[in-house]
Amino acid sequence: MSDANTPYDTLFRTAFEKPETAHELTLLLLPEMHAGRLSGARVTVEPESLVDDQARTHRTDLLLEFTWPRRNGPTSPSRTAYVYVLYEHKSYRSRWVTVQLLRYMATIWQRLVTEREQHQDDVLPEILPVVLYHGEERWDAPLQFAELIANGPASTHVPHYRPVFVDLTTIPDDQITGSLRAVLGLVALKYSRLQLKRAAMNLLTELLHRGEADPGVRHLVRVVQHIYAQVKDADDVKRLVAAASRLGYHEVEGGYMTFAQEMVEKGSLESRRETLVRQLDRKFGLTDPERDRILSCDDPSALDAALDEIIIADDKASVLNKLS
């Protein structure tokens, strides 16, 4: 498996890999028509191995299986009803996200077809794809798959599907409710790319403080602090440290300072990658393959050369050539 995942992927997976928190995520974010029917179901977080090796290079997906008891009791010969919910979070606009999701869905269905080869009267379960967006810019990429295909909207031979789209950045903080783990995960993800205002800093600091006192959430606290030290501007990290100090939450303050110092000492590869992606995307725009190329680069000197090149570059090719 490739390690080309971003810090945001790590945050998302850590926060919502537990079934109970994944269930909360679904009930909070999905429209009532979906959340209502899933509320009483049992949820299982499926292993990443359900998606093929090529599709797992990003490791951004979260696949949940919602099941209901058999209608006629445990002795009923009918199969248990179930639905898959497939999450794909995005920290940037992606024109081809529906293609990516369709690949995931086809892979899952094909796996099930192989398993059910002898059951010719079976039907496959529904897969509900969800795009969870937490980027800085307004999402303007197509969400109807057929719009990406020439003559697709008018064709009966092209898949017509649209994932549920949730823009996390537009959800007010006071509407993000649930367990401490779920709320911390969503608030941290929401502000991972957004500018932190004072109210948001105070909220995040309060959640981290409460998480320090909860053994079940403490690991997520460390992940949030580590990732914020990686992806946030140095001045933002200083302001987060100051907020923790002002509120008297010195364990939170110390956590940030520890991870921030580690980032300085290690010259974090992740930080270099994220900085290059952010700057190159703002200056020229990036395709998904170009973004993946940067995020998979393990050569600090090549990343430094690309970061230097972007200052004088007239096109992105001259910057990306430094990664060769």
For the terminal residues, how far apart are their CA atoms?
21 Å
Radius of gyration: 21 Å
Strand adjacency order, main sheet: 1-2-3-4-5
What share of the residues does DSSP label as strand, in percent? 5-15%
- Largest sheet, strands/sense/barrel: 5 strands, mixed
| Multimerization status | single chain
H and E order? HHHEEEHEEHHHHHHHHH
Provide the residue-averaged pLDDT: 85
In DSSP terms (H or I, runs of 4 or more residues), the helix count works out at 13
Number of strands: 5
Residue share in helix: 40-55%
**Shape type:** globular
Task: List low-pLDDT spans.
Answer: 54-60
Overall SS class = alpha/beta
Describe the structure.
It contains 13 helices and 5 strands. The relative contact order is 0.11. α4 links the parallel β3 and β4. It is α/β, with parallel strands linked by helices and 324 residues long. About 2% of the residues have low confidence. Strands 1-2-3-4-5 form a 5-stranded mixed sheet, with helices on both faces. The longest helix is centred in the first third of the chain and has 19 residues.
Please give the structural blueprint.
Layout: H1 7-16, H2 19-29, H3 32-38, E1 42-45, E2 61-68, E3 81-90, H4 97-115, E4 126-133, E5 164-167, H5 180-190, H6 198-212, H7 218-231, H8 234-246, H9 250-266, H10 269-283, H11 288-295, H12 300-309, H13 316-320
Parallel strand pairs: 3-4, 4-5
Antiparallel strand pairs: 1-2, 2-3
Helix pairs in contact: 1-5, 1-7, 2-3, 5-6, 6-8, 7-9, 8-9, 10-12
